[in-house]
Design a protein that fits this description.
The protein has about 150 residues and is of the alpha+beta class. It has helices at about 55-70, 125-130, 135-145; strands spanning about 15-25, 30-35, 45, 50, 70-85, 95-110, 115-125. It contains 3 helices and 7 strands.
Length: about 150
Amino acid sequence: MKLTPDSGPKEYPVRPALAVGAVVFKDNRVLLVKRGNPPARGVWAIPGGSVELGETLQEAAEREIFEETGIVIKAGEPICSFESIHRDDKGRVRFHYYIVDLAASYIRGAPTPGDDALDVGWFSREALGRLNVSPSTRKLLDQTLTFG
Protein backbone atom coordinates (compact mmCIF):
# COMPACT_ATOMS: atom_id res chain seq x y z
CA MET A 1 0.00 0.00 0.00
CA LYS A 2 1.41 3.36 -1.03
CA LEU A 3 1.06 6.05 1.61
CA THR A 4 1.31 9.79 1.31
CA PRO A 5 2.93 11.75 4.19
CA ASP A 6 -0.47 12.58 5.73
CA SER A 7 -2.16 9.24 5.13
CA GLY A 8 -1.94 5.97 6.92
CA PRO A 9 -3.15 2.46 6.40
CA LYS A 10 -6.91 1.89 6.43
CA GLU A 11 -6.42 -1.35 8.34
CA TYR A 12 -4.71 -1.02 11.75
CA PRO A 13 -4.41 2.77 11.44
CA VAL A 14 -2.30 5.03 13.60
CA ARG A 15 -5.19 7.53 13.91
CA PRO A 16 -8.89 7.71 13.02
CA ALA A 17 -9.73 8.46 9.38
CA LEU A 18 -12.25 11.08 8.28
CA ALA A 19 -14.88 9.77 5.88
CA VAL A 20 -17.96 11.24 4.27
CA GLY A 21 -21.24 9.87 2.96
CA ALA A 22 -24.06 11.40 0.93
CA VAL A 23 -27.75 10.80 1.51
CA VAL A 24 -29.29 11.07 -1.95
CA PHE A 25 -32.97 10.65 -2.88
CA LYS A 26 -34.63 10.27 -6.27
CA ASP A 27 -38.32 9.49 -6.76
CA ASN A 28 -38.78 8.69 -3.05
CA ARG A 29 -35.92 6.17 -3.11
CA VAL A 30 -32.55 6.41 -1.40
CA LEU A 31 -29.22 5.60 -3.05
CA LEU A 32 -27.37 2.73 -1.33
CA VAL A 33 -24.25 0.72 -2.09
CA LYS A 34 -23.36 -2.82 -1.16
CA ARG A 35 -19.89 -2.50 0.35
CA GLY A 36 -17.09 -4.44 -1.31
CA ASN A 37 -14.36 -4.04 1.32
CA PRO A 38 -14.00 -4.63 5.05
CA PRO A 39 -15.10 -3.72 7.58
CA ALA A 40 -18.64 -3.84 6.09
CA ARG A 41 -18.22 -6.09 3.03
CA GLY A 42 -21.61 -7.25 1.75
CA VAL A 43 -23.59 -4.71 3.79
CA TRP A 44 -25.80 -2.03 2.22
CA ALA A 45 -24.97 1.52 3.31
CA ILE A 46 -24.97 5.20 2.40
CA PRO A 47 -22.32 5.66 -0.33
CA GLY A 48 -19.15 7.54 0.45
CA GLY A 49 -15.51 7.23 1.35
CA SER A 50 -12.39 8.95 2.59
CA VAL A 51 -11.84 12.69 2.60
CA GLU A 52 -8.57 13.58 0.87
CA LEU A 53 -6.24 16.29 2.11
CA GLY A 54 -7.42 19.71 0.90
CA GLU A 55 -10.98 18.59 0.07
CA THR A 56 -14.05 20.04 1.71
CA LEU A 57 -16.61 17.52 2.95
CA GLN A 58 -18.83 18.48 0.01
CA GLU A 59 -16.06 17.99 -2.57
CA ALA A 60 -15.16 14.62 -1.07
CA ALA A 61 -18.80 13.48 -1.09
CA GLU A 62 -19.32 14.52 -4.71
CA ARG A 63 -16.12 12.74 -5.81
CA GLU A 64 -16.70 9.60 -3.75
CA ILE A 65 -20.34 9.16 -4.81
CA PHE A 66 -19.39 9.51 -8.48
CA GLU A 67 -16.48 7.04 -8.12
CA GLU A 68 -18.58 4.53 -6.20
CA THR A 69 -21.93 4.80 -8.02
CA GLY A 70 -21.59 6.78 -11.27
CA ILE A 71 -24.14 9.28 -9.91
CA VAL A 72 -23.47 13.02 -10.04
CA ILE A 73 -24.69 14.86 -6.93
CA LYS A 74 -24.58 18.28 -5.33
CA ALA A 75 -23.57 17.81 -1.69
CA GLY A 76 -25.11 19.99 0.98
CA GLU A 77 -24.78 20.32 4.74
CA PRO A 78 -23.98 17.63 7.31
CA ILE A 79 -27.03 15.83 8.73
CA CYS A 80 -25.40 13.10 10.83
CA SER A 81 -22.01 12.05 12.15
CA PHE A 82 -20.79 8.95 13.97
CA GLU A 83 -17.76 6.84 14.76
CA SER A 84 -17.13 3.38 13.37
CA ILE A 85 -14.55 1.40 15.36
CA HIS A 86 -13.82 -2.27 14.63
CA ARG A 87 -11.46 -4.37 16.73
CA ASP A 88 -9.80 -7.69 15.95
CA ASP A 89 -9.86 -10.81 18.16
CA LYS A 90 -6.98 -9.43 20.24
CA GLY A 91 -8.77 -6.12 20.90
CA ARG A 92 -6.54 -4.09 18.57
CA VAL A 93 -8.24 -1.39 16.52
CA ARG A 94 -8.49 -2.77 12.99
CA PHE A 95 -10.53 0.12 11.53
CA HIS A 96 -11.48 3.51 12.97
CA TYR A 97 -13.49 6.02 10.96
CA TYR A 98 -15.25 9.23 11.87
CA ILE A 99 -18.03 9.57 9.29
CA VAL A 100 -19.99 12.70 8.38
CA ASP A 101 -23.11 12.13 6.26
CA LEU A 102 -24.29 15.05 4.14
CA ALA A 103 -27.63 15.80 2.54
CA ALA A 104 -27.23 15.73 -1.24
CA SER A 105 -29.26 16.41 -4.36
CA TYR A 106 -29.35 14.02 -7.31
CA ILE A 107 -28.13 15.71 -10.50
CA ARG A 108 -27.78 12.92 -13.10
CA GLY A 109 -26.57 9.43 -13.86
CA ALA A 110 -27.59 5.80 -13.60
CA PRO A 111 -26.28 3.66 -10.74
CA THR A 112 -23.27 1.57 -11.75
CA PRO A 113 -21.10 -0.11 -9.11
CA GLY A 114 -17.55 1.11 -9.20
CA ASP A 115 -14.60 1.61 -6.92
CA ASP A 116 -15.28 -0.55 -3.85
CA ALA A 117 -19.02 -1.22 -4.37
CA LEU A 118 -20.35 -4.72 -5.11
CA ASP A 119 -23.73 -3.31 -6.12
CA VAL A 120 -25.65 -0.04 -6.09
CA GLY A 121 -29.29 0.94 -6.41
CA TRP A 122 -32.21 3.12 -5.49
CA PHE A 123 -34.37 1.66 -2.69
CA SER A 124 -37.79 2.47 -1.25
CA ARG A 125 -38.46 2.36 2.48
CA GLU A 126 -40.24 -0.98 2.00
CA ALA A 127 -37.25 -2.51 0.20
CA LEU A 128 -34.94 -1.67 3.11
CA GLY A 129 -36.58 -4.42 5.16
CA ARG A 130 -35.27 -7.03 2.72
CA LEU A 131 -31.68 -5.78 2.72
CA ASN A 132 -28.74 -6.31 5.05
CA VAL A 133 -28.47 -2.60 5.85
CA SER A 134 -25.75 -1.24 8.14
CA PRO A 135 -27.05 -0.25 11.59
CA SER A 136 -25.87 3.35 11.14
CA THR A 137 -27.69 3.64 7.80
CA ARG A 138 -30.88 2.10 9.20
CA LYS A 139 -30.77 4.47 12.20
CA LEU A 140 -30.22 7.50 9.97
CA LEU A 141 -33.07 6.59 7.61
CA ASP A 142 -35.49 5.46 10.36
CA GLN A 143 -34.95 8.27 12.87
CA THR A 144 -33.78 11.27 10.90
CA LEU A 145 -35.44 11.06 7.49
CA THR A 146 -38.82 10.18 6.10
CA PHE A 147 -39.34 9.10 2.54
CA GLY A 148 -41.67 7.11 0.28
